[in-house]
Each structure stands twice: as C-alpha cells, then as structure tokens.
Amino acid sequence: MIFLGTWAGLNIISGSAGYFLSEDDTKYFHQMNAGWNLVNLGIAGFALYNISQMDASSLSYSESVIQLQNLDKILLFNAGLDIGYMATGAWMWERGLRKGSERLEGYGKSLLLQGGFLLVFDLVLYLLHSPITNNIITQSDTFQLTATGFRVNF
C-alpha cells in the first residue's frame, strides 16, 4: 500500500503540474491521472490505517486463513476490474479520435496507463501472496487432531 500511495502521490503532483503546463489531449491525460490517483491515495491510506489498527494476534488460525484467501480473491477480482478500466480507456481514446474530442482522447490514454499499472500491481501482489496462502494451508494439512491425540503427517 505504501507503493500504491507513492504512485498516487507522484501522479497527483505530475498530473496537476501537467494539466496547467500542457495543451490538447495531454492536458486531459494529466487531469485524469491526478483525479484517478486521488482515489488510489484514498484506498492506500484507508488500507494502511486498517492495517495499523489490526491486532493479528486476536485472529484464530482459521480466521487468518480466511483473511488470506479473501485477499487472494480480491486481488484477482481487482485484476478483472483493471482489464475493464483498460478496455474503457481504449474505447474512450478511439471515440475521442472519431469525434475529435481531446478530452476523451486524454482520458482514454490515462485510463489505459492507470488500468495497466493497477493490473500489474494486482497480479504481482497476487503472485507474491497466493503461494504464502497455499503454503499455510498445505502445512496445516500435515497436522491432525484426532480423538486419540495429535498426529503429524509427512
């Protein structure tokens, strides 16, 4: 989330400056980058706040596994949304070219960039996180609590 927040901050700064220093569709590209990343900054800030308030020791093992699996699902769902953002951006860019709308062109280019970044971000996080989740689940399968005691399977 620190990485996402940094990306957002840099885009807000560069987008704001670029909006005032640019013309044509580039002006709208920067405008959308700044606006889009206000949302990203809010998401990163909200997530970091929630992480700072979380007491991981209060979660049971099964609750922890459920939380890990939920994060994996959220990351994959977000990757699907990211593809939708990119498709919308491509449509806006193309429509802007057809209609002669610099705003649609700039916004479309921005959505392609931001959606592409988020797609890579979400997939990398999933590829890093999912093996951890799977490893914990696999390790838990080696332990069994039976009526006669505790058993470790190798």
From TrEMBL:
It holds the Pfam family DUF6992. This is DUF6992 family protein.
